[in-house]
Amino acid sequence: MKSNGWTGGEKLDYTGISADAPAPPPPGLYKARVVEAKPQASKENKPMVKLTVELYEDGNGEALASKFRVTDNMALSQATRFRVLILSKALDIEPLTDTNLEPLRSSAARL
């Protein structure tokens, strides 16, 4: 039987680990870069892009002391096309025109 990474032998030490989530960045404008845009299927087996962006600079052009990453699973459908359009405008790219996998992979690779 395949273990899927579970071996049962490693002990986990939580000493010094905080359960508090990191504070979000203050409200404002930020520059961000796409770290990953990965085409995949949703739980309903619909086309989706797992998108991770990283904030790296504030609106004044100052580099952020710590990077903030945001990951979103963006389903692609008629019902969610407004999200695709808004994201495309923010990234200054053409929005996807259909849900065929090859054009989707090509667009994700350009990010």
Can you list the strand order of the major beta sheet? Answer: 1-2-3
Give the strand tally.
3
Tally of separate helices:
2
* Class by alpha and beta content: alpha+beta
Cα gyration radius (Å): 18 Å
The major pleated sheet works out as: 3 strands, antiparallel
Please state roughly what percent of the residues sit in beta strands, choosing from under 5%, 5-15%, 15-25%, 25-35%, 35-45% or over 45%. 25-35%
Q: What share of residues is helical?
A: 10-25%
Global geometry: flat
Through-space gap between termini: 39 Å
Element order, helices and strands?
Answer: EEEHH
Q: What is the arithmetic mean of pLDDT?
A: 81
Model regions low in confidence, pLDDT < 50 over at least 5 residues: none
Number of domains: 1
Q: In a nutshell, what does this entry contain?
A:
The protein is an alpha+beta fold and 111 residues long. The protein has helices at 81-91, 101-110; strands spanning 30-41, 47-58, 63-75.
